[in-house]
Design a protein that fits this description.
By secondary structure, this protein is mainly beta. 10% of the residues lie in helices and 37% in strands. Strands 9, 10, 12, 14, 15, 16 and 18 form a seven-stranded mixed β-sheet that branches. It has a six-stranded mixed β-sheet with strand order 22-21-26-31-28-29, with no helix packed on it. Strands 11-20-19-13-17 form a five-stranded mixed β-sheet. The radius of gyration is 23 Å and the shape is globular. Residues 1-22 form the signal peptide. Keywords: Glycoprotein, Signal.
Length: 540
């Protein structure tokens, strides 16, 4: 009996020890947000720096890590960061948009506690208030797989973040003034790669080695095409999903989207252009960076290679070719294809149509005819403290066909529903839609009007799961989504002037039976503001 009791005791000690060790790791970040003079397009302008950097530092993490990010606001106005693609499971309080989170006042700080629960992939953060995004303040987020989870490609020799986006020479305050005056923004002045203009960034590679490029379009409105002179790119990941490893010579990256590609340095050992150009615009904006072979003494020369310009069908066909690798593991060891989304019956269809127009002589943008206006208190806090002030159902779940009007649009949906959302674009631009707190399956996209017969062409087997989807001009895009993350979540266009002027809404995912098992309480020490600050206090 003694050996048995001893064995049981040892087992319990090991079990308890493993439980302690198994707590998910913490990573700490301390950031100071300041203004600084930057020269991305050769002229001085006011930029937003994080710890003196433009763009800001990368967030490097591993699945399930706890990220503790202390942000000091040294600007002269309120500030917030949001985490594009981080799902913040059960915790929309820290999403970092004004509908969920109180801004950080000037001269104060706030600590955000995020967990990248059950996620992998390439994302980015950005400032969400006051058109700050046009001044910088953005940076990359990478979530690596845990060591015991297989990844469907060998470790690269290096892993580069590449942030691309259109850019204005005007300060963000001047752009905001234009929008506040009810006018449209002019055409952008250029394109940046990692905050620099033409040939301002160099990426060094060794002959014969393979590298991962994490490409995010952090710009304000334009779809961009990315290519590397003389090199093929193998797509391996899209916003947290391992993809079929399809090879491309160039890749369309729509605003708000993120991709990971592998390139192998198997060409002549000289410097090669990395090219980014605008899509569907006249004129076409182009910029370059340099892929430098470590043994090269030959700089780039001649014109950079051209790419697609206005071809919609080319882009649509490429989008349809991006599929999930069903046999690869995601954040967990089970294959990504083990969740058979195409075999689940949808319980609701939501149709969302974008539009543009004038309200009281000023430019506004809308979803289902409603142009969003914020309240003086984040909606999530009004909801949590049961203060009210907004109406769930203030936006219809299908287009009304009426003129644009202003309201605080909140769409109510039931927790654990499995829904179909149709994004309808009757305009001549490429739209790009993002939903915080979630990934969704992009099951279909096509030109013309969506009808029920459009479902016959859905991909119900290996559609890519992501958090930002494009909608081509005069076209529609359909997504399936499992509403398994309780909270108040921002659904918005990534065309940032349109978002600023009302083309967004909040999706309230909730049921009367929702409990603390489904949603965390408001974080201790959360900053409070507006009506909540007047009626409730918590330790800061």
């Amino acid at each position: 009996m003694l050996p048995l009791k001893f064995a049981i005791a040892v087992f319990l000690v090991v079990l308890i020890g493993n439980s302690i060790v198994a707590e998910d790791p913490y990573r700490y970040f301390d950031w100071n947000v300041t203004y600084g003079t930057i020269y991305p397009l050769g002229v001085p302008q006011q930029g937003i720096l994080i710890n003196g950097q433009f763009p800001g530092p990368d967030i490097n993490s591993v699945t399930n890590d706890n990220l503790v990010i202390n942000i000091h606001n040294s600007l002269d106005e309120p500030f917030l960061l949001s985490w594009n693609g981080v799902q913040n499971r059960r915790n929309s309080f820290v999403d970092g948009v004004y509908g969920t989170t109180c801004p950080i006042p000037p001269g104060r700080n706030n600590t955000f506690n995020l967990q990248v629960k059950d996620q992998i992939g390439s994302f980015y953060y950005f400032p969400s208030l006051a058109f700050h995004k046009a001044a910088g303040g953005f940076g990359g987020i990478r979530i690596l797989s845990r060591p015991r989870i297989p990844v469907p490609f060998p470790d690269p020799a290096n892993d580069y973040t590449i942030l691309i986006g259109d850019w204005y020479k005007k300060n963000h305050t001047d752009l905001k003034t234009i929008l506040d005056g009810g006018r449209k923004l002019p055409f952008p002045d250029g394109i940046l790669i990692n905050g620099r203009g033409p040939n301002g960034v160099t990426f060094t590679v060794d002959q014969g080695k393979t590298y991962r490029l994490r490409i995010s379009n952090v710009g304000l409105q334009n779809s961009l095409n990315f290519r590397v002179e003389g090199h093929k790119m193998t797509l391996v990941e899209v916003e947290g999903t391992h993809t079929l490893q399809t090879t491309y010579s160039s890749l369309d990256v729509h605003v708000g989207q993120s991709y990971s590609v592998l390139i192998t340095a198997n060409q002549e050992a000289k410097d090669h252009y990395i090219v980014v150009s605008s899509r569907f615009t006249t004129p076409v904006l182009t910029t370059t960076a340099v892929l430098h072979y470590s043994s090269s003494n030959t700089p780039v020369s001649g014109p950079p290679p051209g790419g697609p310009t206005i071809q919609i069908d080319w882009s649509l066909n490429q989008a349809r070719s991006i599929r999930t690798n069903l046999s690869a593991s995601g954040p967990r060891p089970n294959p990504q294809g083990s969740y058979h989304y195409g075999m689940i019956n949808t319980t609701k269809t939501i149709r969302l149509a974008s539009s543009a127009g004038q309200v009281n002589g000023k430019q506004r943008y809308a979803v289902n005819s409603v142009s969003f206006v914020p309240l003086d208190t984040p909606l999530k806090l009004l909801d949590y403290f049961k203060i009210g002030g907004f109406r769930v159902g203030s936006i219809q779940d299908s287009p009304t066909g009426g003129g644009i009007y202003q309201d605080t649009s909140v769409l109510g949906v039931d927790y654990r529903q499995f829904v179909e959302i149709i994004f309808e674009n009757n305009e001549d631009i490429v739209q790009s839609w993002h939903l915080d707190g979630y990934s969704f399956w992009v099951v279909g996209m096509d030109g013309g009007q969506w009808t029920q017969a459009s479902r016959d062409g859905y991909n119900l087997r290996d559609a890519v799961s992501r958090c930002t989807a494009q909608v081509y001009p005069k076209s529609w895009t359909a997504i399936y989504i499992a509403l398994d993350n309780v909270g108040m979540w921002n659904l918005r266009t990534e065309f940032w002037a349109r978002q600023y002027l009302g083309q967004q809404l909040y999706v309230r995912v909730y049921t009367d039976s929702t409990s603390l098992r489904d949603e965390y309480p408001i974080p201790r020490g959360a900053r409070l503001c507006g009506k909540v600050a007047d009626r409730h206090t918590r330790p800061l």
